[in-house]
Structures are given as C-alpha cells and as structure tokens.
Amino acid sequence: MTTNVQQLFSSAQQDGTLGAQSMQVLAVPDLGAQIALGLGIAIDDVKASEVVLVTLMPDDSGSIRMAKNAQNVRDGHNAVLDALLASKQKDNVFVHTRYLNGDVLFPYVPLAQAIRMDSQNYDPNQGTPLYDQSVVLLGTVLAKTQAFLDAGVNVRTVTLLITDGADAGSNRAQPKDVAAIVKDMTMAERHIVAAMGIDDGGTDFRQVFSLMGIDPRWVLTPKNNQKEIRRAFNVFSQSAVQMTGGGGAGGFAAVP
Q1: Is 57 helix (H, G, I), strand (E, B) or coil?
Q2: pLDDT band at 16, cuts 50/70/90?
Q3: CATH number among 3.40.50.410, 3.40.30.10, 3.40.190.10, 3.90.1150.10, domain 3-247
C-alpha cells in the first residue's frame, strides 16, 4: 500500500471511522497503488469548505455488450453527469469513474472536467470481479474523504456500483469484506453506497448486494431493457442531486 493511502486509512482509524476489519481488508499488497490512481485532484486546489464526492463503477464485462446494453450504460453514466451539472451546488461536486475491471476513466476531478463515456473509452469485454473492485472503489472513496477531512473540508459521498451479473473473477475479496467497509461508511453518516443490478435472468441482485452490506433501500434492479436501465440511472441521478443539497438519506424510494 502506498504511504499516502496508508496514512489516510490510519488517520480514519484514529478518528474512529474505520474499524479493524476494514483496515485488514484494505491492507492488501498493491491495493494502495490501485486506490491512488483514483484520488485525483490535490486537496490544496479545492477552495470549498464542503464537497460532495460522486463515484461511479460502470460494469465493463462482456455480458453488457452481449445484452446490447453498452450504449445504455454510457447514456446512463452521462445522464448522471448532466443532472449534477444542472444542480445549484455543481461547483462543489467532484466525480470519479472507475470501470468494474479496474480501468480508471478519470480520477476525482471537478464536475466540469468529468469525461463522458463513449464508444472509444468504453468497450465492455471483460469479467466481473465485483468484490475485488468494490473494495478498491470504496477504498478510494474512503481515502479521498479522509484527505478532505484532514484538511478541514466537510465531505458527503454517494457511490454507485453497477453490474449485470454476480461476481466472477474476484481472487482477493469476499462479500463479507465489502460489507465490513460498507458498514463503517454507513456508520459515519456521510456516505451513501448504492448498487444497480441489471437483470441477467438469473442473479438475485438484492441478495448479492445484501451480502455486500448494501442497504436494500439503495438497491436498483432494472429489467434488461433500455427504458428500465435509463430510468434506474435517472433515479440515482436525482438522489445524487439531492445529496449535493444536503438531502437524499431516505433511499431510492424517497426520490420523487
């Protein structure tokens, strides 16, 4: 683990926001280097006293392409950016997108600098290491959050994990490892961890995400068609916008 990331996690543990089990999960060789790729903007370059981190993990597995959902996922991701850009607090929003197989589309950047997904930068053709990469992504959220907190900047976060299948390919993490991190984040009362499971005809996504510790109120399970997928992204977008205004804690059912 890189020194900077390790220091951030140690600081979070000292603050009482990161438990021993989560620390053990995050203290994996090479994990810090993966997390560092997503940290992005230097804290000194941020002038706001309060920020919102929006973090997205689109599925780039081959099944997305086979189900003809690549453009739906691109459009959904970009719709989230558009909704945030229309919010009153857009200047205080920082965004990071990392694909499910670990490729970073962009690290944390001001919302206006976020890169839109297109056919050139998103070609879903890999596996589904859901647990491994959820640990990386949530570790990135925690590290960036702690960096802001250590600098005296208040932080709220909203994160969306997206998959159209159960885990296939994780070799380090298990559901309980993700759940330990999610539990610590939930107890800190500044994080929302949400998940979207696009119907594959067989996976019980509510069970999958429950084992990962994700509150059922923050789970979306759209059917495998354009209308449902885009609607699910729209529901998440509304929650993310609410988060920028200090609301959004009631789950997706509370979204108008």
Answers
A1: strand
A2: very high
A3: 3.40.50.410
Which residues, at least 6 apart from 165, have a Cβ–Cβ distance to it below 8 Å? 59, 61, 63, 128, 200, 203
Q: Alpha-carbon distance 27 to 6, whole Å?
A: 8
Between CA 53 and CA 110 the distance in angstroms is: 10
The pTM score is 0.96
- Please tell me whether residue 46 adopts helix, strand or coil conformation: coil
Q: At CA 140, angle to CA 138 and CA 144, rounded to 5?
A: 120
With vertex at residue 198, the alpha carbon angle to CA 84 and CA 175, rounded to the nearest 5 degrees, is: 95
A 10 A CB-CB count for 27 gives: 12
pLDDT tier, 3 (very low <50, low <70, confident <90, very high otherwise): low
- Phi and psi at 65, nearest 5°, equal -65, -45
* Residue 47 CB neighbours (<10 A): 8
Q: What is the pLDDT of residues 27-77, one digit of tens each?
A: 887 899 999 999 999 999 999 999 999 999 999 999 999 999 999 999 999
Residue-range domain boundaries for the chain: 3-247
